[in-house]
Each structure stands twice: as C-alpha cells, then as structure tokens.
Design a protein that fits this description.
By secondary structure, the chain is of the alpha+beta class. It is 27% helix and 26% strand. A nine-stranded antiparallel sheet has the order 2-1-6-5-7-4-13-12-14. It has a six-stranded antiparallel sheet with strand order 8-9-10-11-15-16. It has a four-stranded parallel sheet with strand order 20-24-25-26, with helices on both faces. Strand 24, helix 13 and strand 25 form a beta-alpha-beta unit. The protein is elongated, with a radius of gyration of 23 Å.
Length: 490
C-alpha cells in the first residue's frame, strides 16, 4: 500500500486495469466525501471508517485510486493508493487513521495520468498547518491558474494539484484563499477539503457535478457526491450544496457563504448513467427518472416484440419502464458476472478476445426464437452494443431491437466525464441508421433530448446537455470542441 505522512510518499501502488478496456462505459471523474464529528475518543476511531463506507458507496464514480485524509486537530495524515476502496484500505490501516474530521476520494482520471502521484486527497503544507483537498469535476482554465504559481510548486499533473497549491500558498488560511481563488476558477468542481480543524465544501457556480450535505447523529456533519453515500453511513440528508456556495464546518456548526452568483447547469448525464439509482438529485429519484425515461422511450420508439430485456445493470430501470408502457413482458436475457470489472491482472490477448462474454452470458432458453427489445443507457463507441447484438443472435434470438435511454452522445465532455474525442464517439461520425448498421440491430431508437429532459423534471435551461447538443454552459474554445479535454498541466 502507499500512504503519505505530511505529503511524502512512502511506497508506490499498482495500477488496476479493465478486463475489457477497449470500450469502457462513460467514467465520471471521481467521488468525494467528507465528515466532521465532535472530537471524542469514540469519534476519533470512527471517522476513517465512516469515510471508508462513504467511499464504498461512491465506488462507481471512480475505480483507479482511493484515499483518505484524517485530522486529530493537530496534524493531517493522508493514506492513498491505486485500486478500489476495499483494495486500498483494510481494518489495520483504518485503525491507524484517527481523528474527528476526514476527507475521502475515489478517482477516475480525466486530466493527469493515472499514477500514484495524481491520486487524491492532495496535500500541501501551509503557513497555518496543512491542507488536504478532494475534487470531482474538471477545470478548463488550468494553465491560466497555474501561471499564478511559482515554478517548481507543482508536483503532480492534475488540475486538482494546481488548485491545492493555490489554496495552500495564499495568505490568511484556506477560507481566505478560497474567497480569492474560486471566483476565477472555471469549469466543474465539487470540492471537499480540510485543514486541521475545519471541513470545507464548495461547488462551482454552475453546479455541474453534484454535492450534498447531511447530518450524522445529533452533531456530526457529512458532505458527499451523492445522497446514497449519506444513506450508507446513516446520515440524514439536509440539502444540496448550492452552486457558487462554500460551507465551513467545525465546532461552531455549518457556516455558509457565496463566492459567486448561482448559474445552475446540473449534468443531465447523471440521470442517464453516472449516479446510483438510489440517489436523489434536485428532489427527484434517479431510479424514478430512469423508469420514466423507459416509458417515454417506448412511446417514441415502439416495436412489435416478445420480450424486453436490459443490458445489466445500467439498462434495467429504463427496460422496466419500456415494458410497462409497451405491454411487452419484461424478462432477463443476459446474466452479468458481477466480479468482472477491475482487476490487478492484465488480461492476455486470448482472454481479451472473448470480449463481452467475460461480463455477460445469454440465457439461451429464455431468448431462443424470441423478438427482443434490448434497452441500454447510452452508446459511446458502439463496440459493446455490437457484441451484445452478436451474442444474442448466436444464442438464437429471432430479432434484436436496441433502444437507448439517452440521445446520441455526439460531443466530448470538458467538465469531468471521460467521453472520447468527437472522432471516437460513434454518434459524432454516424447517423442513427449508420449506428444501427454498425451494431447489427434490426432497429435502433434513441430517446429524444426533449423527452429525457421532461423525465428529469428540471427546466432545460438549468441542465448541462453539452454531450448531446454541443452547447457548453461554460465557454470552451471552438478549436477544442472536437477534442476530449484540454491539455493537463504538467
């Protein structure tokens, strides 16, 4: 394992790999979590474990690395490594992380390479002590921010490292530094950070990535990327951190201030795929939204068929809705191997050629001779759907009709989702008929953008829809729009 004490690495970790890395699903930048509890002997032993379980609940948001920073009021200790939360931490490690406030992070890289140095929390010594910071999102003016730093002040290649360095090197402590730096920071950022005594959280003025506040027992406080993480640790949801808001939490309670005017543009793709189905966003259940999307998808793209099946697990809620609205029976046609995904073993070429069969296996007796509607959440590169269609035909399906519970993903994301370059996005170069032909389906239907927005019950103008319509709420240079992300700071 790897850890830092006062920010110094003790041992490098190892990088995990996907079993099927050629067509990974959309990846969010990361999950963030923070907790403050009154400093008692019992709480000092529980804070790291609360953070561990919070990160476990957010594991879907990032699987490359995990880390926790804990303070006992006098010093900050950081422990982080490459791998899943359960691979990085065990009981013995958690027992050494004692304190009354902590921040935690699970990462998927969108800027900076997937190395131990870029794992979070990031740590910096300051004139007042220490600063540990976690970040979900992606900044689009990192080079401009980096020019505010002296040469040699950066030790990693991420936008998060630049932000941490700026907050640590300004006079007056983290709060004063954040008041200066956050108003000139552009892009998506949900931040949870801490010094030795105070837990802080801040969200960009557009509120692109989610961030929520919860109360733990009577006097503890929790901040997390999703409400599901609050549920897991037994915290009560209080409210969302507002766009352009910063909060500070310590023995005096929760203090709030605004550093920018709110311009809400929440990520619509959170409803499609990124968030857990048991999470609530803007008062709306993600599960309920996805089922409603399926109903609307059935109305927009009906077909005569014998059974509706999902591509597990992300297609399941929409498949339920499609079956309800269409009257076509819902069934299980594909079995997912839940233990395939992240591993420390790099697959050989022979194993990689098995492709989707490592993850999905057809129920032949259920699908043979049937006309199937296969519901999935999105198509990014198209390789997975092509393999699924082939798998079902080989198992004896008479027809395979694919229905997608999002519009075509045609544009890259600059705000924290690892979508490919526009040239790699299949919808960036092919129309619907071209995609249908490529994946080999008998028919293909995407829900319209208007119907997806209607299912979310959020006003169109309060949503970021850039990956679907190319309208970026935070301006991006025209010559960068066909690319994936701006070059990371090095």
């Amino acid at each position: 394992m790897a850890s830092t004490l006062a920010g110094v690495p003790l041992r490098d970790g190892r990088l995990s790999h996907d079993i099927d890395p050629s067509d990974r699903a959309p990846q969010d930048a990361c999950g963030v979590f923070g907790v403050w509890v009154p400093p008692t002997e019992a709480s000092r032993a529980e804070v790291a474990k609360l953070t561990y379980y919070g990160l476990y609940a957010l594991q879907h948001r990032g699987q490359e690395s995990a880390g926790i920073a804990v303070s006992d009021g006098s010093r900050i200790v950081v422990f982080k490594d490459m791998g899943l939360v359960a691979q990085v931490f065990d009981e013995s490690v958690l027992n050494t992380l004692r304190g009354h406030l902590a921040v935690g992070h699970c990462r998927y890289s969108t800027t900076g390479s997937p190395t131990w140095e870029n794992a979070q929390p990031t740590f910096r010594s300051t004139g007042h002590g220490g600063l540990a910071l976690t970040h979900n999102g992606n900044l689009i003016n990192t080079p401009e921010l980096a020019r505010k730093l002296d040469r040699g002040e950066l030790t990693a290649t991420t936008d998060t490292e630049v932000l941490t360095a700026l907050l640590a090197t300004r006079e007056g402590g983290p709060l004063a530094a954040a008041r200066e730096i956050l108003p000139v920071t552009r892009g998506a950022y949900s931040l949870v950070f801490m010094d030795e005594n105070v837990l802080y959280a801040a969200r960009d003025p557009e509120g692109i990535r989610p961030l929520v506040l919860g109360q733990w027992e009577d006097s503890g406080w929790v901040v997390a990327s999703e409400t599901a993480a609050l549920d897991i640790v037994g915290a009560r949801f209080v409210r969302e951190i507002e766009p352009g808001e910063m909060v500070a939490i310590d023995a005096d309670g929760v203090r709030s201030e605004r550093f920018a005017e709110a311009r809400p543009k929440g990520c619509l793709f959170e409803y499609v795929y990124l968030a857990r189905p048991d999470t609530t966003i803007a008062g709306r259940s993600v599960q309920a939204t996805r089922v409603e999307v399926g109903r609307r998808l059935a109305m927009e793209h009906p077909v005569e068929a014998d059974m509706v099946i999902p591509t597990p697990e992300s297609g399941t809620p929409a498949a339920i809705g499609y079956a309800e609205a269409s009257g076509i029976p819902y069934g299980q046609g594909l079995v997912k191997n839940s233990y395939v995904g992240r591993t420390f073993i790099q697959p050989s070429q022979t194993i990689r050629q098995l492709g989707i069969r490592l993850k999905l296996n057809p129920l032949r007796e259920a699908i043979e001779g049937k006309r199937l509607v296969v519901v999935d959440d999105s198509i990014v590169r198209g390789n997975t759907q092509r393999q699924v269609v082939s798998l079902l035909r080989d198992a004896g399906a008479a027809e395979v009709h694919v229905r997608i519970s999002s519009p075509p993903v045609s544009w890259p994301c600059f705000y924290g989702i690892d979508f490919a370059t526009r040239a790699e996005l299949i919808a960036g170069r092919l129309d619907v008929e071209g995609i249908r032909s490529w994946i080999g389906a008998d028919s293909l239907g995407f829900i319209s953008l208007d119907e997806l927005i209607a299912a979310s019950r959020i006003d169109k103008d309060r949503l970021c829809r850039a990956c679907f319509d190319g309208v970026y709420p935070i301006p991006v240079e025209e010559d960068a729009r066909g690319k994936h992300l701006l070059e990371p700071t090095r």
